[in-house]
Amino acid sequence: MEVFSLTAVWLTLILLLMAGLLMSGALRPDLAALILALGLSFSGLLSPQEAFSGFSRSAVIALIALFILTAGLNRTGVSRALGERLSRWAGDSPGRLVAGMTLLSASLSLAMNSVTAAAVVMPMAVQAARRIGLAPSRILIPIAYGALLGGMPTLFTTANLLLSGLMRDHYGRSLTMLDFIRAGLLPAALGLLWVIGVTWRTLPERSPAGQLMRLHRLNRELAELYGLQDGLVELLVEPDSPLCGLSLVESQLASRHSVTVIGIRRKGHLLLSPSSSESLQAGDVLLVAAGPEGTAPFEQALRDLGLRPLPRPVSPQVLEEGEAGLMEILLSPHTTLIGRTLRELRFRERYGLQVLAIWREGQPLRARLADERLRFGDALLVYGPWERIRLLQGDPEFIVLQSNGEPLRTSRRIPAIVIMAGVILASALTSRSVAEVTMAGAVLMILAGCLTMEEAYRAIEWPTVFMVAGLLPLSIAMTRTGAAEELGTVLLYGLAGAPPWVSVLVFTGIAAALTQVLSASVTAVVWGPIALRAAATLGVPPAEMGLAVALATSAAFLTPMAHPANALVMGAGGYRPRDFLRAGWPLWLLSVGAITASTVGWGLGLPR
């Protein structure tokens, strides 16, 4: 066979193109995966049936079921009950609180998606940290890392499910729950000890979005944090203003001048958070939130519209009047709003709330918000009636950082725990496929009343499902074309004659490095077939190599884009990208070494 066949070269080019699209952010990952599946079909590398076979694969069915099981645990308040007990146990000790919340995040990751586990723990951790005066920046990275580490010793992680399926495709034997427990416990335990003992103490103390949670000070301090005290201005509507009789949306003040009207003072009464259909009248005094430079850049334009800035100062305390207030919300892991603008979403009309600022990468954005495309990890400072803000607590698009949440089905808590425990035990002790076991558990969650069918549909992260289904046929193409074998040729030459543990260390390190720039799912599908093909030649049991690569995809500690759990806490913790690198590199090295030791040791005298 040629060193590199034409089909292998063609497939490699497709892979490089997809990797470039993912790293550049030019396309959503789910869309890139679907384009990949189409490319494999149109190029003739796979038949149409094979190109779309990912939608029927066991890993995808199990993934859908796990989203439903996770929702059942959350809807019945299992996660919140654990968080409240840990908070009481921690008392006023920052170390105990970090330890408790990190371990809770890791524990939840054993049975649910890692980013969902981090999202569940984050609001509880922020509120508990505020209670004892601990900066959220000291606890949120540990929660994200805990979720990643907790995903190692379980089958219920996307990358682990994918590698289990690849093992079955290549060698007729899936990796089981017990396999991951044996191999993953050591690196997970060592990693958690490092995070709890060292990592949180090295993190910076910052005042990020989500820091100020006491309701009696919330409006005032949030206004100061986002710089609103410099941007609150009053505009008098002159009698000859052409805006008289027009609604707020018709006035185009927000779209043209970045001026957000948050109140109208009329005949001695202040109407806060007015509807976009509210008509302007002569003599109205508009309370507006302008950009960081106030109204100075377009003061002449405002005068032409018959709006005269009033010289008196405006205190942020005015925002405390009435039944309206400020609140910070984060985009949830389930959000469909990434890449869209507030204008496209018609945010104010849709939610009855105004976005006054966006917190991104440690800085507030206050200018031209209507055209700012939303990113995962953004925190939005919203203003409006409390009843509207409370409605967001049940919206899957957002996480409200200060929230009592909608009523939970606590009466179904025991059935939810029993069902989840049964799924874990059945996955570990029976020969049934993980798809069968998890889907049975998901159906039981619904039948037991832990959540409704509509809630189950909403719980499924369809972008993740489509991304994984689109990527899975890639492993078929890599094996059939010989690309998996050929791409590993260079490494095989370099590792010829090396001890098996050295080969496992190299392949583990490469997988852990790729995960920092690609997602864990992409790394598993791209690097998994190469590693499994190389295993036999290098004298490494395939199960060891498959486990090592799977566990390495959880070592996503170095960049905020390495895993959605990192991106999720970035805005709420006020982190910068270098914070993840500084906190994560010792943990990354420790994990790569521990994974190698654990997987190589796993093969000694144990079933392969």
From TrEMBL:
Keywords: Membrane, Repeat, Transmembrane, Transmembrane helix, Transport. The chain crosses the membrane at residues 7-25, 31-47, 59-77, 97-122, 143-163, 183-203, 414-431, 465-484, 547-565, 585-606. One of its GO terms (molecular function) is monoatomic cation transmembrane transporter activity. Pfam families: CitMHS, TrkA_C. Residues 220-308, 314-398 form the RCK C-terminal domain. GO terms for biological process: potassium ion transport. One of its GO terms (cellular component) is plasma membrane. It is found in: Membrane. It is a multi-pass membrane protein. It comes from the Bacteria. The keyword NADP does not apply. This is Di- and tricarboxylate transporters.
